[in-house]
Amino acid sequence: MRNLTIATLGSHSALQILKGAKDEGFKNLVICTPERLSLYRSYDNFIDEVIEIDSWKNFPKLEKELVKKNCIIIPHGSFVAYLGLEENKKMKVPYFGNKQVLDWEEDRKMQRYWMEEAKIKVPRQFKKGDKINRPVIVKSYGAAGGKGYFMARNQKEFDKKIQTYTAKRFMVQEYIIGVPIYFHFFFSPLTNKMEFMSVDKRYETNVDSLGRIPALSQRGLKIEPTFEVVGNIPLTVRESMLAEVMNMSDRVVTVSQKLMPPKGLFGPFCLEAIITSSEEIYVIEISARIVAGTNCFINGSPYTYLLYDEPMSTGRRIAREIKLAIQKNKLNSILD
Amino acid sequence: MRNLTIATLGSHSALQILKGAKDEGFKNLVICTPERLSLYRSYDNFIDEVIEIDSWKNFPKLEKELVKKNCIIIPHGSFVAYLGLEENKKMKVPYFGNKQVLDWEEDRKMQRYWMEEAKIKVPRQFKKGDKINRPVIVKSYGAAGGKGYFMARNQKEFDKKIQTYTAKRFMVQEYIIGVPIYFHFFFSPLTNKMEFMSVDKRYETNVDSLGRIPALSQRGLKIEPTFEVVGNIPLTVRESMLAEVMNMSDRVVTVSQKLMPPKGLFGPFCLEAIITSSEEIYVIEISARIVAGTNCFINGSPYTYLLYDEPMSTGRRIAREIKLAIQKNKLNSILD
Amino acid sequence: MRNLTIATLGSHSALQILKGAKDEGFKNLVICTPERLSLYRSYDNFIDEVIEIDSWKNFPKLEKELVKKNCIIIPHGSFVAYLGLEENKKMKVPYFGNKQVLDWEEDRKMQRYWMEEAKIKVPRQFKKGDKINRPVIVKSYGAAGGKGYFMARNQKEFDKKIQTYTAKRFMVQEYIIGVPIYFHFFFSPLTNKMEFMSVDKRYETNVDSLGRIPALSQRGLKIEPTFEVVGNIPLTVRESMLAEVMNMSDRVVTVSQKLMPPKGLFGPFCLEAIITSSEEIYVIEISARIVAGTNCFINGSPYTYLLYDEPMSTGRRIAREIKLAIQKNKLNSILD
Questions:
Q1: Which of A145, A216, A299 sits opposite C218 (nearest CB)?
Q2: Cα C269 to chain center, whole Å?
Q3: At what angle do helices A314-327 and A14-23 cross, to 10 degrees?
Q4: Exposed, middle or buried by CB within 10 Å (0-12, 13-18, 19+), for A113?
Q5: Is the CB of B212 less than 8 angstroms away from the CB of A211?
Q6: Are C266 and C187 in contact (CB under 8 A)?
Q7: In this predicted model, what pLDDT tens digit does every residue of C222-258 receive, in sequence order?
Q8: DSSP string, A145-184
Q9: For tag attachment on chain B, is the N or C end more exposed, with fewer CB atoms within 10 Å?
Q10: How far apart, in whole angstroms, are the C-alpha atoms of residue C309 and residue A299?
């Protein structure tokens, strides 16, 4: 264990991942662009090494060094945005997770198939040419942090807004009326156990500012709602909903073992749901890795406190899984 | 103490209650319906026994076993919904709390009298035939989790909506414009001290989704607000408001000792308030037992940290009260 | 250290400050008005002394006693409201912070100059006679807790509302469409390090209730939005935004050392920001002392957990700075 270094890219949930690695006894390092050097260097109480990179395009050149340093890379939500999907798949540094999952996560059609196979309710999806007969939300593929989403109430509004839309690949999804809620899980292939980690909701600009503007004033302002994520708010969920949500997460993992065999999905993931007024749970997206909402719980969540005596973040849980794999001599089963 | 088992029903805040019991050194058990077996069994790190029940109707048959096991039942917000008010009162297993409180909590008129006697501001209530001259919220009796509530701006809207309303017993309450906030207390009859535990607000579908939809779009969608609770969000409250809120809670307990003599209300309870723009505090409801909002603080709250060196949840605080009662040989004073 | 007593006024974040003082090994005392005596006395597990004061006007008479008791006063957001700006500046009891900052914080024009010098984006400000060509928010000077704010969409609405406005000194600020977010920092002049402590958003009545009322119903109710702060909600922020926010806070401190020489701003402060949909960060206000939003984190925040092994509140961090100053024999450098 002393020879291994937990490494990640400087963004998203890197602080949590690196702190967790240190708490579990690993060396760690972070790779970041120049403008973030001072941020990550200021946490020298738990970050061992900060490697500067001029541009993410140069990441492949770094790989040899990372391999030499016995790094294990922990992916997070900025990996695809920074490196691209193909670069992630080609990465030679040992990678925590199953890379087959990347394709299933990125392609919205494949993701949808995965959810449907797992008997998860998903919003209706509109294909090209379908008549838009209800409110929809239009999401670009691989969009990071809600950027480039828009809402349309009907065909007319859709037709108008799509004219100035710049995304090449996008999805038209039924807009479910209900509250968003993000469920964080950790599935351990070593213990074969699903752990409920935490819950959050996103804090999005400007859509979360609308409610503070009186309806009358909104009329004058003609504000178009946008969905850029700026932060996260901690939540807990009704305990009577937990059993159902845990079952859903089990099915998602079970199906993944068929679709992305043999390992399937493991480690941290998130079901991003809308709960309707009839308490139906629609999953609008799955994030098959650590999500930024877990940053609310770097010092532990109400739910991880049920499972662990120490403050257990999702980042730390990853490091612990790696530690456990070393102890069981099963490191290969969790790396790709 | 070793002979006692803390028991509860599998829902609401059971995980918190059971974890708290274990942390205080008690054995514990949970009774749950089949679809939740796997949830509660998965927490075998702190739950000693999971008893399956086919239907809550069969609960009375279980009682003999629970008595034999020296159980103390900890009630929570699902008890009346699952077992019915009468079954709660008839329960033969030792019960944490004062069962007289159940009637005062369930009947909205009695609850209102209690609050008024305690000099608590309450929203105006409309009796049958009263002219509805302001916005109102209509709440069914004993409604769990906000189900079956509706809003009406005026007599006309009320008349229209009431035609399709199915609740038999309901209350028409003035809709107070202001923000909801839920104050959690614990009153210990053993130390005679009121403890301020935590604060939350509810996360309700679909009413908390409205603000994210532009006023203009809402018009097209004709969404009727509903109030189903799906989760809770942690809060803190202005410190300058704390003194007033603590005084309110003291009065509520003092009055309860007259209305439900001699023990009155003790243990955990919640004042559910609306704070107006003139900073008046209206209590819209009292929950005379542990509330689900305390689930935000299973690992302790900012306020319990002021009182305890350990992470003190409301569930754990209940177990500690029982422990204290055993030590003082006063178990009877907190059981019914 | 044993001779020193940490003292503050009974309001705002006093509980946090006093608990932090105790946790760091100091004696402490709180001065409060009669109606709050029972609140602060009930925390006798960590508050050593509660001094009653009939009226804040009599505070100067208390000063001799406080000096004799070797008190260090920790200011918070109620100091100017309770004692007045001049009384704060004249205070003879050793005071944690740089009193020069008080003028720069209170005067909105000076505050604006400070922010602009630090290259911080600020909303456009309208001078008397300026044509109001966009939505504005009108804020009274020194307004505590959002009281006396109002919104106007345009010149016409402004002209109408200003007629009944009672504040003598006020500011007309562009209303930035975006989400509010409050960043809490601690700058240590002893270690020369900026620490990111936590993030919150305010919970304001009645403006945060608007979103729960359907647009159609709002029309009938004619609700005027008000901004009284009743509480705070914990947040975390996108990690990719942290670097920028940390740079902003560094610049604010650097500039302050020129404007309020030589010490400038140190200790706890808060940048109160609006994040727009293009992810621009506007600072609408700086609070140059501990803010009430830190009360969400009396038991530590996700961010302080990155820096400290113990639950580190902002209040405790202040006490630790004083302890560090004593150890370094530099107490004078942090007192005024």
A1: A216
A2: 6
A3: 40
A4: middle
A5: yes
A6: yes
A7: 888 999 999 999 999 999 999 999 999 999 999 999 9
A8: TTTT-EEESSHHHHHHHHTT---SSEEEEE---SEEEEEE
A9: N
A10: 10
- Per-residue pLDDT of B184-211, as tens digits, reads 999 999 999 999 999 999 999 999 999 9
Place of tokens 């009545």: C205
Distance from CA of C298 to the nearest CA of B (A): 5
Strands A5-9 vs A71-73: parallel, antiparallel or unpaired: parallel
Sites in chain B below the pLDDT cut of 70: 142-144
Q: What is residue C282's predicted lDDT score, i.e. its pLDDT? A: 98
Closest residue of chain C to A215, computed from CA coordinates: C215
Beta strands in chain B (DSSP E): 5-9, 27-32, 49-52, 71-73, 125-126, 136-140, 150-152, 170-174, 179-188, 193-206, 227-237, 267-275, 281-287
Residue with tokens 């007593």: C5
- The Cα–Cα gap between B250 and B246 comes to 6
Summarised one tens digit per residue, pLDDT across range C131-148 is 999 999 998 876 567 788
Say yes or no to pLDDT of A36 above 70: yes
Q: Do C151 and A217 touch (CB under 8 A)?
A: yes
* Residue positions counted in chain B: 336
**Beta carbons of A299 and C307 less than 8 Å apart:** no
Count interface pairs B-C at CB distance under 8 A. Answer: 132
The predicted pLDDT at position A201 comes to: 98
* pLDDT at residue C5, rounded to an integer: 98
Spatial separation of the C-alpha atoms in residues A121 and A113, rounded to whole Å: 11
- Minimal Cβ distance to C246: which of A12, A16, A39: A39
Which chain B residue has the Cα nearest residue C217? Answer: B153
Smallest Cα distance from A272 to chain B, Å: 14
Q: Which residue do the tokens 């946490």 mark? A: A43
Asked whether the beta carbons of residue A181 and residue B231 sit closer than 8 angstroms, the reply is yes
- Token pair 């000693």 in the structure block, residue: B48
| pLDDT recorded at residue A142 | 67
Q: What value of ipTM does the predicted structure carry?
A: 0.95
**Residue A156 contacts by C-beta under 8 Å, 6 or more apart in sequence?**
none
The two tokens of residue B191 are: 């130390």
**Minimal Cβ distance to B206: which of A201, A238, A277:** A277
Q: What share of chain A is helix, strand, coil (3-state, %, to 5)?
A: 40, 25, 35
The per-residue pLDDT for range A2-23, each reduced to its tens digit, is 799 999 999 999 999 999 999 9
Say how far apart CA B106 and CA B268 lie, in whole Å: 16
Q: Which of B22, B147, B217, B316 to mutate to test the interface with A (most CBs of A within 10 A)?
A: B217
Q: What's the pLDDT tens digit per position in A207-241?
A: 999 999 999 888 778 888 999 999 999 999 999 99
The confidence score (pLDDT) of residue B319 equals 98
Residue of C nearest to A296 (CA): C236
Contact A185, A277 (CB under 8 A): no
